[in-house]
Amino acid sequence: MPQLDATFYPSQILWLFLVASALYVFTRRYLMPQVEAIMQKRQEHIEHHLNQARMWHSEATKKQEAYHALIQETQDKTQKILQKEKEDMLALRQEKLDALKAQLHSDMERTEKQLRTTQKEAHAQLQKDMAQIVVSLLDKTAHISITEQEAQETLEKLHQ
Fold first, then answer.
1. Sequence-separated (6 or more) residues with CB below 8 Å from residue 3
2. How far apart are the first and last CA of the chain?
3. How confident is the model at residue 131 (pLDDT cuts 50, 70, 90)?
4. How far is CA 77 from the centre of its chain?
5. How confident is the model at residue 42 (pLDDT cuts 50, 70, 90)?
6. Mean pLDDT value across the chain
7. Rounded distance, CA 73 to CA 85, Å?
């Protein structure tokens, strides 16, 4: 085997050095720049996407904060509207209650007035009926003849 023969060692070392140097130069001049360019593009691509993701995250955070602020503002407005409507409804209820009380008071006064009028009419009718009874009773029992007018005047005097 010539590879193991010591006389061929210097030529083998020379060729090993020349081939290794040629591979090193070829790799260093042609392959490494391409690999470095690919690695650089890859790194730029990753950085671009990371920056874009950070930007989107920032925008999403701002929109989320705006959304929460809008929700809070809407809830505050809703509370104010509800409070105003509640106050309006209470005022309207009080207004209607006052009107109803006034109507009830008016109706009670009118009813009391009608009751007094009816009482007076009933009292007058009762006095007239009593006068007729007195006239009839005196005529039938004592054979005394008086007018209804006289009987009414006498009953009024007795009543006072």
1. 12
2. 169
3. confident
4. 9
5. very high
6. 91
7. 18
DSSP label at residue 142 = I
1 falls in which pLDDT band (50, 70, 90)?
low
DSSP 43-83: HHHHHHHHHHHHHHHHHHHHHHHHHHHHHHHHHHHHHHHHH
In terms of phi and psi (left: phi > 0; alpha: psi -120 to 50; beta: otherwise), the region of 143 is left
- Count Cβ atoms below 10 Å from residue 151 Cβ, excluding itself: 21
pLDDT at 73: 97
Q: Which two tokens stand for residue 124?
A: 């007058």
| Other Cβ atoms closer than 10 A to 131 | 21
- Take residue 89 and report the two structure tokens written for it: 């409804």
